[in-house]
Write a structure and sequence with these properties.
Mean pLDDT: 86
Strand content: under 5%
Radius of gyration: 19 Å
Strand order of the largest sheet: 1-2
Number of strands: 2
Shape: globular
Low-confidence stretches: 314-322
Length: 324
C-alpha cells in the first residue's frame, strides 16, 4: 500500500509538470489550432483505449462495440448542455452513468458468451445503438446534433484522462482487479476457486463503458456538430488497434497506442487515401515482430531505469505485471 501511495504521488507530480508544459505551449500559441485539437483527441483516445483495455486486455473479453457507449455519453451530454443548459460536469457524469448503466444491462446477457460469439454480439450492439440514435429526430437523426456549446478544453481533457488512468490502474491492482486477471488467465479455474466470473466481467464491462461515455461527452463538446457516423464500427476498430498496438494488459501501452495512432492519423491528414494502408502495414509489421504489442504486459514504471524513481520493491520487479 505504501508503494502504491508513493508511486501515485510520483505519477501525480509528473502529471502536474506535463500539464504545465503543454498548457504553456497552448497558451503561448506554439502549437497551431490543428495540433491543439489533436492534443485533445489524443487525451480522449487515451480514455477510450484504457477503458477498452480493461475489458479486452485485463478481463480477457473481446468487445467490438466500444464506440456505441461513446455515442451514448456524447448524445446524453449534448442534450443536457444544449437543451437543458446543464453544467458541463453534470453532462459528463450523466453521459458516463448512462453508458455504464447500458453496459450493465447489455453485459449481463452478452458476457455469458465467449470468444468470437462475444465479439459478434458486441459488434452488433454497437451498431444497434448507432442506428437507434440515427432514427431519433429529437437528437437530429442522421443529420446529426447541431449547435453544441464548445466546453471541452485542454484542462478538462487532461485531468479527466489522469482520473481515468488513476482509477483503472488502482482497480486493476485491487482485489476486484486481480479477480478480473484470474478470469483472463483461465476462466474455468477462476470459477472453481470461487470467483463470481459473471459479476466481475459485468463490473469491468460497466466501468469500461462508463469511461467511454465520459470520453464521448468530451468528444462531442469539441465540435459544434456530431453525427452517428462518428461512432461506426470503424471507430470501435480504431480503438481496438490502439489497444493491440500498445499491448493488451498494459496501461502504458494504451497511452502509447492512442498517441501513435492519433499522431499518425493527424500527420497523414493530407493523404487520407494512404492512411488506412499505412495503418494496415504498421499492424502487419507489428504482428510479425512484436505480436504482444509495444509494451505487452509491461508498465513503464516497471522498467529498470525508472525503478529507483518509483521505488519498486524487488518482488514487484520480478513478478508484477500490472502495477503501473
Amino acid at each position: 500500500m505504501k508503494y502504491l501511495r508513493k508511486n501515485d504521488a510520483v505519477l501525480l507530480g509528473f502529471a502536474i509538470v506535463l500539464f504545465a508544459l503543454l498548457q504553456g505551449l497552448i497558451s503561448g500559441k506554439v502549437l497551431s489550432s490543428f495540433w491543439q485539437l489533436n492534443v485533445l483527441i489524443i487525451g480522449i483516445n487515451i480514455i477510450m483505449a484504457v477503458s477498452l483495455n480493461l475489458i479486452n486486455g485485463y478481463t480477457g473479453q473481446f468487445s467490438l462495440g466500444h464506440a456505441g457507449f461513446m455515442a451514448v455519453g456524447a448524445y446524453v451530454g449534448v442534450v443536457l448542455t444544449t437543451n437543458f443548459h446543464a453544467p458541463f460536469v453534470v453532462a459528463l457524469l450523466a453521459g458516463g452513468l448512462a453508458a455504464a448503466f447500458l453496459g450493465f444491462l447489455i453485459g449481463i446477457p452478452t458476457l455469458r458468451l465467449n470468444g468470437d460469439y462475444l465479439a459478434i454480439a458486441t459488434l452488433g450492439l454497437g451498431e444497434i445503438i448507432r442506428i437507434v440514435i440515427m432514427n431519433i429526430e429529437y437528437v437530429g437523426g442522421a443529420a446529426g446534433f447541431k449547435g453544441i456549446p464548445h466546453h471541452t478544453n485542454f484542462a478538462w481533457v487532461f485531468w479527466l484522462t489522469v482520473i481515468a488512468l488513476f482509477f483503472i490502474k488502482n482497480f486493476v491492482n485491487s482485489t476486484h482487479g486481480r479477480a478480473c486477471l484470474a478470469i483472463r488467465e483461465n476462466e474455468i479455474a477462476a470459477e472453481s476457486m470461487g470467483i463470481n466470473t459473471t459479476k466481475y466481467k459485468v463490473l469491468a464491462f460497466s466501468i469500461g463503458a462508463g469511461f467511454a461515455g465520459i470520453a464521448g461527452g468530451l468528444f462531442a463538446h469539441c465540435f459544434y456538430l456530431i453525427s452517428p457516423n462518428s461512432f461506426t464500427f470503424m471507430a470501435s476498430f480504431n480503438y481496438l488497434i490502439m489497444v493491440v498496438m500498445g499491448g493488451m494488459g498494459s496501461i502504458t501501452g494504451s497511452i502509447a497506442g492512442a498517441f501513435v495512432v492519433t499522431f499518425l492519423s493527424a500527420a497523414l491528414a493530407s493523404w487520407p487515401e494512404f492512411r488506412m494502408i499505412i495503418y494496415a502495414l504498421a499492424l502487419i509489421f507489428l504482428m510479425f515482430y512484436r505480436p504482444q504489442g509495444l509494451f505487452g504486459y509491461m508498465e513503464i514504471t516497471s522498467m529498470r531505469p525508472l525503478n529507483r524513481i518509483f521505488g519498486r520493491p524487488k518482488e514487484k520487479q520480478e513478478g508484477g505485471r500490472t502495477d503501473g
